[in-house]
Amino acid sequence: MIEPAARAEPPRAPETAAAPPAWLDAALSWPLLTQAPLRSQHLGRAHLAELRVSPEAVGAYRSLTPDTELPPGSFFVEWLRDAESGRPGPIFALERAPEGWRFWVLDARGQPEPGGAPGLCAGCHAGAPAPPLFGLPREGLESTAPVPRSPE
Prior knowledge:
Layout: H1 23-27, E1 38-39, E2 47-53, H2 58-62, E3 75-82, E4 88-97, E5 100-106, H3 118-125
Antiparallel strand pairs: 1-2, 2-3, 3-4, 4-5
């Protein structure tokens, strides 16, 4: 008896990277909330952060209190850079969606990270002073000047 040939798996199509979210380009024109980069608490090592907030949320975020309500469509976007090398890092964002908060994890090019880390994000941000928002240090909030970016 002749054994049938082993069936080969059909070739898989190469995975294509997801497109950056539609709001990301607009976010680059949103107000920058501090004159100098912030020290980010993300990732467990030194990163500098550029934080931008959608225009409808700027006033509320600058005077954040535990009972601050933000409208659906509000965004908080943090671009990270390695504090030592200056290399671009991931982009983290919070979106106030109609059903609650959505956490975004994007790579340095703005493409969504597969799976992201919404559970981890939500767990940490649940302990924020104005959940899920931590707010800003009180110094340096009067400036909206852009933070110079190093070449990519």
